[in-house]
Amino acid sequence: MTSSVAEVSAVQLNRATLSRQFLLERERLDVADAVRRLIAVQAQQPESVYVALASRLADFDPAELDAAFAQFTVVKGTLLRITLHAVHQEDHATLRTAALPTIRPVAFDRQFTPSGLRPEDVDAMVPALIEFAATPRTSQELQRWIAERFGGESPPGVWRALRVIAPLVHEPTGGGWAFGNRPSFRAATEIAGSADPERSAEAGKAVVQCYLSAFGPASIADIAQFVGMQRTRVKKAVQDLGDELITVRGPDGSVLHDVPEGRIPAPDVPVPPRLLPMWDNLLLAYADRSRVIPAEYRKIVTRVNGDCLPTLLVDGKVVGVWRVVDGKVEATPFEPLPSSAWRGLTEEAERLLELLGHREPALYRRYHHWWRRLPEEGRRILAG
């Protein structure tokens, strides 16, 4: 591997991430290209995809994302870290193949053991499942299909295992954010069940490059954290990529990997404020999250059950959280902010309310209980 002696500061790492995540300046891209450049967009809450792209794209039109989901140019499925993500359709198979060695043990854990079946028995069901799900199927229809294959009762854990290992994507079901509360599924174009080591290794190399393009420079631990691959597999992928990657030294002397064309802006580049959605990948992309969130705020933003609250981003760092209450955007800062930051956040809040329009004014309402445990000092209405 070609090694570089270049050193990058903590501020440069922050700016590199913001640049590659379109958070220094909104990009003019169509939504499919944007999702591909970002590698994946968190979709655990369907509205988060819209808010994430609105914070990153100039002239973002939510109807364009609706159309991309409807046409399956962008698909939603269980991928990185066994979590729902929106990805470009052409990247779905690669991401799944790279993830399978990690997610299969989760699919066949102790919840599956009482079924009395072997993993190979479930693998054998995948081709027929794909054929059945060539047209959209609800969760209930798929569970009945499984039950029929076992004499009318589905063994414990089988549907859960199939949701993890089978190439299923979510069918848009309408509503304000393309997907409602009751998921419907259809088969993706590729067929894959068991993890083939050679295919998984090749896919892993491709995913490492995509991750570094979107989040680099980064360490082996960072890549493993976001992609959900074992560190040994990530290390092997980096070694196999050889001269296709470069290395730099982080502020603590750590070895960081990157793509040769990866941009590292000057540390004094202007950084605009942003409102980021729940579970934004910016906060989940690194083992060392101090790049974007101060250590003292991490447990406030990421709750004990894993809920990651929508955040205020100022000068490239998380400085508070936000929510929508009664049609108004409310900000809860964790520290005093300058007036210029408040002006920028207000502009972002006005953009957000324009996005919400008639879609769902009560954004993330089911998570508002967390605010009872947050500091109230400095809380203010940004817009609405």
Task: Describe the model.
- There is one protein chain.
- This protein is 39% helix and 15% strand.
- The chain has 384 residues and is an alpha+beta fold.
- Among the domains are: 28-187, no CATH class; 293-383, no CATH class.
- A hairpin with a 2-residue loop joins strand 10 (311-314) and strand 11.
- Helix 5 (89-107) crosses helix 10 (197-215), helix 10 (197-215) crosses helix 12 and helix 11 (220-227) packs across helix 12.
What characterizes the major β-sheet? 5 strands, antiparallel
Tally of alpha and pi helices: 14
Gross geometry: globular
Strand residue percentage:
5-15%
Helix vs. strand class: alpha+beta
Number of strands: 13
| Order of the strands making up the biggest sheet | 9-10-11-12-13
Order of helices and strands: HHEHHEEHHHEHHEEHHHEEEHEEEHE
Please mark out the parts with pLDDT under 50 across 5 or more consecutive residues, or reply none. Answer: none
Radius of gyration: 21 Å
Averaged pLDDT, please?
A: 93
Helix content: 25-40%
N-end to C-end Cα span: 53 Å
Summarize the structure.
Among the domains are: 160 residues, no CATH class; 91 residues, no CATH class. The chain is built from 14 helices and 13 strands.
How is this fold's topology laid out?
Blueprint: H1 10-20, H2 31-37, E1 41-42, H3 46-54, H4 62-70, E2 74-78, E3 84-88, H5 89-107, H6 119-123, H7 126-132, E4 137-138, H8 139-149, H9 158-165, E5 168-171, E6 184-187, H10 197-215, H11 220-227, H12 231-241, E7 246-249, E8 255-258, E9 274-276, H13 295-301, E10 311-314, E11 317-325, E12 328-333, H14 339-356, E13 380-383
